[in-house]
Structure formats: C-alpha cells, structure tokens
C-alpha cells in the first residue's frame, strides 16, 4: 500500500460530463491505498482462505442462465446509445472464467480481478483488514498531487504519442487499434505510476467506491457501462441500489465514454458485475511509513 498525506483538492471537472460538476474544494484525511487494483492471484488467495463465493458464481448456481456481463466487440456499426449492442450476459462468466465457462485465468494471474460485485469487494476488504475507498479518497489519490489536471499525469491524454494507461484506441466499439497493446485488461503496473506511485488509477478496470450514486439536479445518469444504470424500471419498482465506480476502463474511448480521468464517475448497481469492473482497497492512517 501507499501512504497518502491528507489535504484539500479540487474535486470534479467542468468541461466533460454533467455528473462531474460542480468543481468543489474537498478535504480528505491521510490514508493508505493499494498501489494497484486487486489481482486475480490476490483474490484467489482470499477465496482459498475464506471459501467465499462471488455474486456471479452464486447467481450461476441458483438461477438458470446465471453469470455476468462480458464485452463482445460488434462486427458492424451500432447505436452508441445502446450498450446492449456490445454487452452479453454469459452463463458461467465470473472471476474464475472471465469470458465464460470455457475460459480461465491462465496468463491473467497478475491482471485485475473482474466480475466483482460490490459485496464481493466488501468481503475481500474485510478479510484483508481494509476498506473500500470513498469517492473523494479515490479521486484525491488518482490525481497524484496534480490538482485540477485532466489526467493522472497532466493535461495531455497521450503526450508525444505515449500510451500511459489501458484505454480504447480507435472507434469504439468496432475498431480497436491496440496502440496500447491490450484488447482487454492488462497486468497491473504495466504503465508508470502517478505522482503518488499508484498504478492503473485510470483505465484498465472501473473500481468500486463506498459512496452511493447521486447526480446534480436535472442531470441524467450516464449509461456507458453494462447493467441498468441508465434506465428507470417501468414496472413501478424502485431503482436498484447503485454505488459510484471510478477511473474508467479499457473500454473507454475518445469517441465514447471519456472517463479515463480522475474526475470521472459512473453509477453501478451493487449486485451487477462485468468483465471491466474490479476494485482496490484503502486503510486508515495509523502511521506514516510501512
């Protein structure tokens, strides 16, 4: 973990999406945060020690057709307003089988664990003696000391053409030029750390926070990810509980969902998982050195 000295910062962004506004001054206390997202090998240790079964696995055991959401690249142009065009709910998809029952974690040991629902992340954090970050903690850490910068390293997305995070290059969702070398997740710490030495704070996988989702008045919730986060049920039932996820993922692109930024945020139903959602943990500051 990395120690983050507390302080004040400008939270949010003014020029991208309405859910990031207004920019406001926020104070956070000192805390520790994982240097990378939790990996498959780390999550496997937790499961081996605790016997924990994730939401996606429980759903697959108890319901016909249970599993999780997997990104499937379309072969032709699609309506960008309809994420169902590239998300497929696959039977048996879970953290052990990220693309479905025929897949496994071979070669993915040091990649971020995915298909993680909110309670799965909470369970791991409790086992590890940690917590999930607040949205303010996560964003403060992601900025790496660059208050007000658009990205975790400054104001240019790819300075001098250099890829500094795992995000989508090309026309999403049909063309991926793979300029960063990865079609899906990448091993943690593939890219340089930010000013605090934290890796993958933007891109690679979305990460859970403990904060309940809220929007500025008169603004509509975004819907660039898997799940029902942009739609209100028509049968009179209430909206499923949602939490804020941060950081964007390998599916964020210039032409769609420019959320590979510290200020970016998105709503995610707490019991829904997908092939681009993971997490990292924080801990209370009890000392200033490991």
Q: Describe the largest sheet.
A: 4 strands, mixed
Mean of residue pLDDT?
A: 91
CATH architectural label: Alpha-Beta Complex
CATH topology: paralog of FGE (formylglycine-generating enzyme)
- How many domains in all? 1
According to CATH, what is the class?
A: Alpha Beta
Radius of gyration: 18 Å
Helical content class: 10-25%
Characterise this structure.
The longest helix has 11 residues, at 40-50. The protein contains four helices and eleven strands, in the order ββββααββααβββββ. The relative contact order is 0.22. The protein is an alpha+beta fold and 290 residues long. The model is unreliable at 228-236 (pLDDT under 50). The radius of gyration is 18 Å and the shape is globular.
Note the main attributes of this structure:
290 residues, alpha+beta, paralog of FGE (formylglycine-generating enzyme), four-stranded mixed β-sheet, three-stranded antiparallel β-sheet, 11 strands
